[in-house]
Amino acid sequence: MERVPVSTCSTYKNVQECWSAQDPYCVWCDSKSCTFEDDCKDSDWVSIPDDYQQKMVSHNVAKDSTGQITLNILTHLTAGEKARSNFACQFPVSSRELCRKNEFPPQFPQCICILSENILPAEGLAVSVRIRLGTLTLLEPLTLTNCSEIRGPPTSVLCQQCIRAGCGWSKNHCSWANQGVRNESVCQMMGSGMNFSRPEISSITPSVVSFYGRNHAVLSGHNLNDVTRVRIQTDDCSPRDGKRKITLMGIHLEFVERVTHSHAPQEVQTSQNSNFQYVAPGLYTQLSDSDLTTGSPRTLTHEEVHERDGAPLPAEVG
User: Fold this and answer.
1) How much is the CA Rg of the chain, to the nearest whole Å?
2) pTM attached to this predicted model
3) Across the chain, which distance is largest between two alpha carbons, in Å?
4) Which residues contact 305 (CB under 8 A, 6 or more apart)?
5) Is the pLDDT of residue 144 over 50?
6) What pLDDT was estimated at residue 308?
7) Scanning 48, 73, 191, 312, which has its CA 20 to 30 A from the CA of 240?
8) Percentage of the residues of the chain whose pLDDT score is greater than 90
């Protein structure tokens, strides 16, 4: 009997790689290594949040009726108790104090900064936010922008620029975060009525990816300027049989009645031999260049199960 890990956490060398893998089994442990949560119970650890986020740290800028500007810093992380109890943010600015002192103490996963001045320069204000979470330190560079100065024709591009600057989109113009919508889905609806050239995909590299964690693929072709997101989609997410032959070697195998896989038991015919094989479900997917559309973050590719010999078995065999 052999125990095979379902994830390869140790291959990620820093906290960004560990988080970007989007692998729920992996945590960044004690600011040193990416490992399994069970191996880091007595230390500080951080991992991905319950809901998918594109960035580890995000921000938004709000302005109230008195003209007071508030900067909100959000950390999109899950953390152990030790790390959560030692959470803080610093907003160093060389020329002056950025925040009013002791207005709102940091409370995981958010830090609030009430700006000491109610005016942001036209060119924007560069800020490096230092976030401490247990033994982990994150440095997030930001450019704080006057949201009302982000102007132009109401296009999906301007909408995305507005929201990514920490502002909100309201009635075809950019406004402060508390006065508009903060979800980029509003920009998708703006792009639905615009004309785009259909993308032509000549290759997707790699064409075979694992179901586990986040996958990185490079698309090559024509008319890709308006493609903003790619999503793998399938009509059937249930496990399928592949053709990965697993060979078990040992003694007394004539008493084996079946092999238990993580998805479903796989029946095995017993024999008098000391070696036998069985077929386990496939774990890989084949990326295809069909069914690709453009215009907004709605670009899709579909997938089909790709059968591959010799893939690692993410389960206990016993």
Assistant:
1) 25
2) 0.59
3) 85
4) 240, 242, 282, 284, 285, 286
5) yes
6) 35
7) 48
8) 35
